[in-house]
Structures are given as structure tokens and as C-alpha cells.
Amino acid sequence: MGRRPRADDRCRCVDRSEVLVSENQNPTPGRDVTTTSGAQDPERFTDPGVPAHKLRLTDTDPAARRRNERLVVLLFAISCLGAIGSIVAYFAVRPDGTTEGVRLSTIALGVTMAISLLGIGIAAIHWSKSLMSDHEHVDERHELASSPEVREVAVQHLTDGVEDSGIARRGVLKGAAVSALALFPLTFAVPLISSVGGDWNISKFRHTLWERGTRLAYDPTGRPIRAADLTVGSAAHVIPEVPQEYMESHEWITEKAKAVVLLVRLNPEDLRSDQSPEGETWSYDGIVAYSKICTHVGCPVALYEQQTHHLLCPCHQSTFDMADGAKVVFGPANRPLPQLPITVDDEGYLIAQDDFAEPVGPSFWERLK
């Protein structure tokens, strides 16, 4: 049952014109109200202007200003040390082929590069907040195409801004800023330059760990997969079955990245393409296996939509049809996902018939399609 309204629940309806008349008779101080005919909403108010400027401590205290200058110089110096440390870490902390070595090298490079970049960023922010001019300026809107006079004024404003920053008068500060900005690009330029003579053997992308008779195993446990264990509509992330000691090696990380597969069981009647160009059957009883590496830029493709049989790449939304040879139906990818030909062994486990018939991953200079 609803409650009955009380007297204090009722509201008094006031005509809009009464409110406007009341405002016009007793206008708010400092506000110019203009109304249109018919007592509509106010259409113009007086510009309140720029609030009174408040001086900072560095504007009134020379000692505080010098302290802030030294602090900014210190931050730029820390950035320089971080950049130098990054270069040292690149050569001194090299990956030794183990997971721990790769992790240590990555952490050393990441921390030193972060120190270098953060030093520049924090120094620039502190400089602008404590030492640069903070006076408010109002510029009227104008047409996009500025007149020569306006452009001259803009150039003058930029010149005034450089003068306000004080960079010309503060030699130590300028030197620290230039040094930090000059050293930071070396943190990624040195590794790039030093890798020019590295391993450019692209033939390794043509072959993976898959070979005839290799069992398909669940990722990451490595447990072999029976065809009978998969129901229609199910999907599984798959790796090749390898010895446990090999799974603990650094080489396994690289090889696994090329060999990962998404396994899906479809209704056999839904399959529109499950054969190689030579006419061989590459699926087994509706079970298909495709590379998880997107043919666009190599992201992991693993978002499977059961009703449409579409596989979506989360990076750039390339979409592949699992029922039709993993052909591209949407997005920037320009070729289907490579298919792993599969069958079953005498014990009912899923095995590979062979390696992928084409290189996995994105296209490269020897494979444009």
C-alpha cells in the first residue's frame, strides 16, 4: 500500500516569469542579466574576468628560487645517471640463456630507463610550476587564418615565454636540461644500433616444434589431449608435448611462442573448409587446430565466439572464421591463420600430421601475403 502524502511533501508551483521578475528587481551583485522577450532564460552574463594573481614563494623569496633551481638541476642530473646506467646495464647485464638471466636484464634496463625518463618529466613539471611565469593571459577567439599582425604577436609571445622561463639566464639549469634530453635517446638507440649485426636468420620462422607424430598437449600443463575428451563447441589452448626438462629451458620460451595453437571442436557439418591445397584432410571429426599468432602483427588470437565460429584478435580486431579455413572476415590481417594438420594415434590422442605448411605470425619481407 502506498503512503498518503503529507502536507510537507507538497510543493508550491511558481511561474517562471515570477522568478525572473524577482531576479530583475534584486539582481545579484556583479552580474549583468539580459533576457529575451517572453521571459526566457538569461542569454548573457558579464565576463567575470581573470582572478587576482597570487604570487608564489619563489616569486618573492630569492632563497626559495635558488633552492628550486638546484632541485631541478638535481632531477636532470638523476636523469643523466639513469641514461648512463641504462647503457651500462645493456652491456653488463646480458641475458645468459636462462629465464632468470632474461628477467634480470629486462629489470635492469627497465629500471634505469624509467629513472632517466622520470627525471626529465619531474624536472620539467617542477620547473614549470615553481620557476616559469604563471601569469594568466586571456586570448580572444578569432578566425583560423590569422593575419600577419597576429602571427607577429604570437611569435612575440613565444619569445616572451622563453624569456619568462629564465633558461637563458640560468646556465647550469640549461646545461642540465640539455644533457638529460641528449642522453635519454641513447637508452634505446644503443641497443638498436648494437643489434644491427645480430641474428637476422628469418628461416627459423618457417619451422616450429610440430612434426609428424607430435602429440597435442594442454597449455601450460603439457597433458596430452584425447579427441574423445573434446565436446562440440569446446576450445583449448595447445602446445606440443615435449619432455619436462625441455620445458624448463630458455629455448622452450622461444619455440613455444611460435608453436602455440588454438584447438576447437566444431560440428563436422559446419566445416566449410578443412583441407589443404593438395586436398588432404587436416581436421579430425570436426576438430581443427590453427596458429594462435595473428597474421597482422603477431598478437595472441584467442577470443573464440562459439555461435559464429569466429576467432577475434584483441589487439586490432582482426577476425577469422574457424569453420572456413580461418579466413579473414574482418580487420587488418591480410591472410588466414596457418592450420596445423592433425589426426589421432592408436591410443586416441591427437597428434600432428606435420608442421605448419607456411610460416606463422605476421608477414615479413620474404612473405608479403
Automatic annotation (TrEMBL):
Protein name: Cytochrome bc1 complex Rieske iron-sulfur subunit
Keyword field: 2Fe-2S, Cell membrane, Disulfide bond, Electron transport, Iron, Iron-sulfur, Membrane, Metal-binding, Oxidoreductase, Respiratory chain, Transmembrane, Transmembrane helix, Transport
GO MF annotations in UniProt: 2 iron, 2 sulfur cluster binding; metal ion binding; monooxygenase activity; oxidoreductase activity, acting on paired donors, with incorporation or reduction of molecular oxygen
Location relative to the cell: Cell membrane
UniProt keyword tRNA-binding present: no
GO CC terms, sorted: plasma membrane
Span of domain Rieske: 258-351
Function: Iron-sulfur subunit of the cytochrome bc1 complex, an essential component of the respiratory electron transport chain required for ATP synthesis. The bc1 complex catalyzes the oxidation of menaquinol and the reduction of cytochrome c in the respiratory chain. The bc1 complex operates through a Q-cycle mechanism that couples electron transfer to generation of the proton gradient that drives ATP synthesis.
Gene3D superfamilies in UniProt: Rieske [2Fe-2S] iron-sulphur domain
Membrane topology, from the record: Multi-pass membrane protein
Listed PANTHER family: CYTOCHROME B-C1 COMPLEX SUBUNIT RIESKE, MITOCHONDRIAL
Alphabetical list of Pfam families matching this protein: QcrA_N, Rieske
Ranges of biased composition (kind: Polar residues): 22-39
Transmembrane feature ranges: 71-92, 104-125
